[in-house]
């Protein structure tokens, strides 16, 4: 059973999400919160598998709430937003969110996303993340990191990371680099482990922050 905490400052949205989730096999809504502060407290108290998090809320926004929940390692966070180029979304990904979905995402896609996040995967495609980061490079909102953060990687792993940051799947990377898909999967796993990253989305963020990849590259 996947246990979900629904966080949104609009009661109507919470009711809608609860109706969709409670009607799905293997998913249980264990609580609701109307702001980020309530979300942090309930995440600690209830220890849900996934927090479905709005980003624009009073008292404490979803970005800071995500940061605190992820830091406590209690739950994974899936951000819901109205606009996919929302600056709050980028900040939430930096804070450790497993990905983001638009609030008008079809119910079946929402359920699929929750199952993926609960299983440890990122749900937002790296390609969408790349488009988001392209939007904010040069605005001062992306925090630069020294390229020394990548020193643990081999040359081949850096090459694979560049392709991950382009939004390519393992199959596509295998074709580009003339490797087997299994080999690419192994490289991606080692990249995440060496750089202490949760998923491919965070790998894309790091590639931008270190300058390994740039808009339009």
TrEMBL record:
GO terms for biological process: phosphorelay signal transduction system; regulation of DNA-templated transcription. One of its GO terms (molecular function) is DNA binding. Pfam families: GerE, Response_reg. Residues 3-118 form the Response regulatory domain. Keywords: DNA-binding, Phosphoprotein, Transcription, Transcription regulation. It comes from the Bacteria. Residues 146-211 form the HTH luxR-type domain. The modification 4-aspartylphosphate is found at residue 54. Gene3D superfamilies: 3.40.50.2300. Transmembrane segments: none annotated. PANTHER family: TRANSCRIPTIONAL REGULATORY PROTEIN NARL-RELATED, TWO-COMPONENT RESPONSE REGULATOR. This is DNA-binding NarL/FixJ family response regulator. It comes from Prauserella isguenensis.
